[in-house]
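Hi,

Apologies if this is the wrong queue. I'm a grad student, and the batch job for Beta-carotene oxygenase 1 from Rousettus aegyptiacus produced an output file that my downstream script rejects. I'm not sure whether the problem is my script or the file. Here is the sequence I used:
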Amino acid sequence: MDVLFGRDKKEQPEPVKARVTGKIPTWLQGILLRNGPGRHTVGETRYNHWFDGLALLHSFTIRDGEVYYRSKYLRSDTYNANIEANRIVVSEFGTMAYPDPCKNIFSKAFSYLSHTIPDFTDNCLINIMKCGEDFYATTETNYFRKINPQTLETLEKVDYRKYVAVNLATAHPHYDAAGNVLNIGTAIVDKGKTKYVLFKIPATVPEDRMKGKSPLKRTEVLCSIASRSLLSPSYYHSFGVTENYIVFLEQPFNMDILKMATAYIRGTSWASCLAFHKEEKTYIHIIDRRTGKPVPTKFYTDPMVVFHHVNAYEEDSCLLFDVIAYEDSSLYESFYLANLNQDIKENFKFTSVPTLRRFAVPLCTDKDAELGSNLIKLASTTARALKENDDQVYCQPELLYEGLELPRINYAYNGKRYRYVFAAKVEWSPIPTKILKYDVLTKSALQWGEDDCWLAEPLFVPTPGAENEDDGIILSVVISSDPQKPPFLLILDAKSFTEQARAYVDVEVHLDLHGLFIPDTDFDSGKQAPSQEVRDGASNCHVV
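Support response: The file is valid. Your script probably expects a header line. Output copied below for reference.
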């Protein structure tokens, strides 16, 4: 297990040609660009948590049936500072960095002071975001880094706080049909209030494009929601959107701000300041995108932890949303490297299995309905919304499927009624050994797996001119726990979930988190075509 998680991976900055078996669809042209932790030691120091590792970008460029692989560490300020010092000097969420013991007392005192109100890391290791015509590596702090998706070069550092007052923001933004980016962040004790801020980065307008002006400068706040606690805001990883509404879950998985402010002095990590409160409710906030105001009805459900929203849509005056939910916060605990370096299959068992749950909330509540009555009359779901006193509604979900994570959909159906979820199947541990296609209509599933293989998040790419929701292919990066099996890019037919092709690479490939596919059509005509760029000087990959 140490080979997969704890061992530092070498970057491969120059493109390497893969060996392709099977047949890649001729229409599939572009770059699969992904992000995740690749290095967990610097000098004699080591990160505590897998999510703390230094960001390693990697890509598979697909053109004319050929595939080229490359990887490169994100040259963040965090990376550069650590490498220069040959030790971890920038704190991550699960690892607190401390000053050099050789520093004098004044330097140490300054370090303690600076960590009281910390300047968070720019180690953007979670996802890739498209904003206007640019691409960014993202994490959950206020920083993100512009990158070149073709060369993986690290470009400028961007601070959300220059455009919107947030200290934290999700790495899972949404995109609407107009090209606007929607996201949510937390403003910690801003003007005496802690709040969740929903904001929009508008699509690039022609005059800005001509002037080289970033759309970030036109960022606007859509809505602010006051945190239920000034000093213990909710942690969240994603949110949901429909055509007219935004879904935000204020879950009882809270960050203790006072503990975070004193964590450095107390010798603990910021992660230790997160706590799940199983006795508290999960509050469901529904925000009307047209007015920027929350729906007045107070919706809530049982305590749970959600990392990934799947999709949401409106149906007959109701809003339905699907999430992957846990009954506790044990998922985060399981990714401490001390746990992953053991025989995880023998020693680790889920205390809470990730479950696909469907919630339904009424957008218009019947004031004359009896207390305890179900306000959901849809035939399409068994989810319930029970009326209570004081304009409160208790929501009971429909349980759709157990044992899946890292969900993706055909994004053309985002915010709309949909049918298929593509996800990683997880059984005895949070590490996926299969990927699946789940049909929310028929409640049936197709799976793909292979012995000794660990599969990344399955990403759907639609066929040009697709008529059906599952017309397209699935891309997943596959790593084997058997050192004799080289890593490969798996290409499946999304409809039948059968293998179309795979592209083997004879270099180290790391387990990643999230990413996106960039079709060739998304690149400006003035930029060098990905296929030409990777072919210049590319080496061949020979697999034994």
